[in-house]
Design a protein that fits this description.
By secondary structure, the chain is α+β, with helices and mostly antiparallel strands. It has one domain: Aminopeptidase, CATH 3.40.630.30. 44% of the residues lie in helices and 21% in strands. It has eleven helices and eight strands. Strands 1, 2, 3, 4, 5, 6, 7 and 8 form an eight-stranded mixed beta sheet that branches. Helix 7 packs across helix 10. The protein is globular and about 40 Å long.
């Protein structure tokens, strides 16, 4: 990267960090909040020709959305819904999640060795808000980053539409871990991408200060979800102890 490009990148990162004052991250707890997230997903995926039209105009996953190990979050800018992402937190090969279903050969060796994974899925953004705020992709990915710190995760793993890996590789340093495969309810193949969170965290946060967060902010977003995860775990389970840390 030349000096001018580095300067532009630095100024953009500073602008993103400053805009955080106008951004709010919330768990989608109520039925109305979840419905809004499902509609936003549907609009975003339909716009990209990733699914076929549905009468209810929602993208809801019966297998994944309301399970104890998943939490849907919603990002607001100036009080208006801007993006949503579902987070899965797990350290057990038997846990249900999209990536664990599609890429068991990739994830099971990590999980069997006691590693804890954060998996963002169903990332979607408002077209209107994305046009208005070019910083939105960075805010949209902040909840998974916060979750990785809150739960002391080893890896952030995601399923990415084949051919769209560049953003994740450029911003956070994700690596492609698989060949393309089919994905539930999506008219496209995806690849598994993984990030060693501990190895990349400082570098990413130095480049993008907006990814830093306070413990109080993480607790507000994940506190109830974290308590629910603890209640689901057997205290004698070594992997459960990671979630209870």
């Amino acid at each position: 990267m030349d000096i001018r490009a580095a300067d532009r990148s630095s100024r953009f990162a500073e602008r993103v960090a400053k805009m955080l004052e106008r951004v709010e991250f919330r768990p989608a707890v109520s039925a109305a909040e979840r419905d809004a997230a499902y509609r936003l997903r549907y609009d975003a995926y339909l716009r990209r020709n990733l699914l076929t039209p549905r009468v209810d105009e929602q993208l809801y996953d019966e297998r994944y959305d309301l399970i104890p190990s998943a939490l849907t979050t919603v990002t607001y800018i100036d009080g208006e819904i801007a993006s949503t992402v579902r987070l899965h937190v797990f350290a057990d090969p038997e846990t249900v999640s999209p990536a664990n279903d599609v890429f068991p050969d990739v994830l099971h060796p990590l999980l069997s060795s006691g590693r804890l994974v954060i998996e963002p899925s169903r990332l979607a953004a408002s077209a209107e808000m994305a046009a208005k705020f070019p910083e939105l992709p960075y805010f949209a990915l902040r909840p998974p980053w916060m979750a990785a710190q809150h739960f002391n995760a080893d890896f952030i793993v995601l399923s990415c539409a084949s051919g769209h890996e560049g953003f994740y590789r450029r911003v956070c340093g994700h690596e492609t871990w698989s060949s393309p495969r089919d994905y539930p309810k999506v008219n496209a193949q995806v690849v598994c991408m993984g990030l060693d969170f501990a190895a990349r965290r400082d570098r990413v946060e130095d480049r993008y200060p907006s990814y830093r967060s306070q413990a109080s902010e993480r607790q507000a977003l994940f506190g109830e979800f974290s308590a629910s995860l603890k209640a689901q775990k057997n205290p004698a389970d070594a992997r459960g102890e990671r979630l209870n840390a």
